[in-house]
Amino acid sequence: MNLYRLPLEIEPLEEGGYLGRSPILPGLNVQGDSIEEVERLAPGVAKAVIEAMQTKGVPLPAQGEEVAPPFHVQLLVPA
Question: Which of 58, 63, 32, 59 is nearest to 45 (CA)?
């Protein structure tokens, strides 16, 4: 399985909750009650968007990148 790194921008919504979007993957929009929920749901939504792009023959955005172990991630930790 190939892994693809994408940026995810998460912002609070006026009505409550949070919205996550990727500036380089159109269609990656994830809404959740918390930042953690958006982070948990985003990979599945991104995978569905990428699979749809591949089915239609649309190339993946050049700004993203394939990654291999070791993986480096940033954690958001309440302090």
Answer: 32
Residues 25 and 61: beta-carbon distance below 8 Å: yes
Is the whole model's pTM more than 0.85, yes or no? no
Mean pLDDT by 10 residues, the chain (79 residues): 83 97 93 95 94 91 77 78
HSE on the CB side for 75, CA within 13 Å?
4
Q: What confidence score (pLDDT) does residue 66 get?
A: 77
Q: Which of 55, 53, 43, 44 is nearest to 8 (CA)?
A: 43
How many Å apart are CA 78 and CA 5, to the nearest integer?
24
Measure the CA–CA gap between 79 and 72, rounded to whole angstroms. 21
43 vs 73: CA distance, rounded Å: 13
* 9-12/18-21 β-pairing: antiparallel
